[in-house]
Write a structure and sequence with these properties.
By secondary structure, the chain is α/β, with parallel strands linked by helices. The protein has one domain: Luciferase-like domain (TIM Barrel), CATH 3.20.20.30. Helix content is about 50%, strand content about 15%. β6 and β7 form a beta hairpin. The model has no long low-confidence stretch (mean pLDDT about 95).
């Protein structure tokens, strides 16, 4: 049975307590896991620690922490500590993010993100296993480091986010799971083949790996308002967040639309960009509308063979009230 997760808002909230309240609400409603993104707002570690102290059973994870702003050894230390404070409920999600964030915010050269991500996974897993580092890679040559506390038992799982075929294959080959975002149901099936091929190359046990699909959702009694909020969110990602999301849409049969959305957005014509993001595209990539419609749209993704968890995310402009309404409408058992 597909698990139901929550992808906490990527947009800034009024306070850390807002994130904690959303996680507590998710736990009360029976969600299995909460994931927290980290971009350029509050840092994820402090918020996840606060959530761990305020909850008892729900899983907690990062989706995603990038592989540039913290060293792999520091990320491993962080994962070990969060596993301790959450009493074994933590799962580490990492990925390269994109050049717009990595170069523009962190001032780092994006380089070869796939190779860098692979080295992060290798090093993090060595540290979490309690091993002394002796690693020679393209990006990292490290030795002599070992946790000065007991290694976590069990070690937290390490997941990788990816959109392109090679990135997804890498997740299957080296990581414990794959985080997917902005895929149609048809394309998810193709990328799952890449994930499973990677698992075969890495001699991994697929039953021990997890595919988590993050899905932008909005379920309101005013279904048109829900869809408009979701359309604005989706167009923003295609138009303003570098080339990754645009390229992903293009690979999935929406090349003309993706480039037109990006061009209009960058030229300041937001309305034109929104007009290009059609209702058909909205239904292909999101679950939005009245509670009944949003549940039907979400079910299309939850029923994909190989998707282990669907993570309910929210539009950037959604209010606290709209977030809670969506949480309630799409909670496990509400189908």
């Amino acid at each position: 049975m597909t698990e139901r997760h929550v992808h906490l808002p990527v947009a800034a909230q009024e306070s850390v307590q807002d994130f904690v309240d959303q996680a507590v609400k998710a736990e009360e409603l029976g969600y299995d896991f909460v994931w927290l993104p980290e971009t350029w707002g509050r840092d994820a570690v402090t918020i996840m620690t606060s959530i761990a102290h305020a909850t008892e059973e729900i899983g907690i994870g990062s989706s995603i922490m990038n592989v540039y702003s913290r060293s792999p050894a520091l990320l491993a230390q962080t994962a070990a500590t969060l596993q301790e404070v959450s009493d074994g409920r933590f799962r580490l999600g990492i990925g390269p993010s994109g050049p717009a964030v990595i170069g523009g915010w962190h001032g780092e050269d994006f380089g070869n993100p796939l190779r860098r991500t692979r080295e992060y996974v290798d090093i993090i897993k060595m540290v979490l296993a309690g091993e002394e580092l002796d690693y020679n890679g393209e990006y990292f040559n490290v030795s002599g480091f070992r946790l000065r506390c007991d290694a976590p038992e069990p070690a937290p799982k390490v997941d990788v986010a990816g959109m392109g075929p090679k990135a997804v294959e890498l997740a299957g080959r080296f990581a414990d799971g794959w985080h997917a975002i902005l895929f149609t149901p048809e394309t998810m099936a193709d990328r799952l083949e890449d994930f499973e091929r990677g698992g075969e190359l890495g001699d991994r046990d697929r039953s021990q790996q997890q595919c988590t699909l993050s899905l932008t959702c909005c379920a309101l009694e005013d279904g048109e308002e829900a869809r408009e909020l979701t359309r604005q969110h989706s167009a923003f990602y295609v138009g303003a967040m570098g080339t990754y999301y645009r390229d992903s849409l293009a690979r999935q049969g929406y090349e003309d639309e993706a480039h037109a959305i990006a061009a209009n957005w960058m030229n300041g014509d937001r309305e034109a960009a929104l007009d290009i993001f059609t209702d058909e595209m909205l239904d292909d990539f999101t679950a939005a509308g009245t509670p009944e419609r949003a549940r039907d749209e979400l079910r299309k993704f939850a029923d994909i063979d190989g998707v282990d968890a669907v993570s309910v995310g929210f539009p950037r402009a959604a209010t606290e009230e709209q977030i809670h309404a969506t949480l309630e409408a799409l909670a496990p058992g509400e189908e």
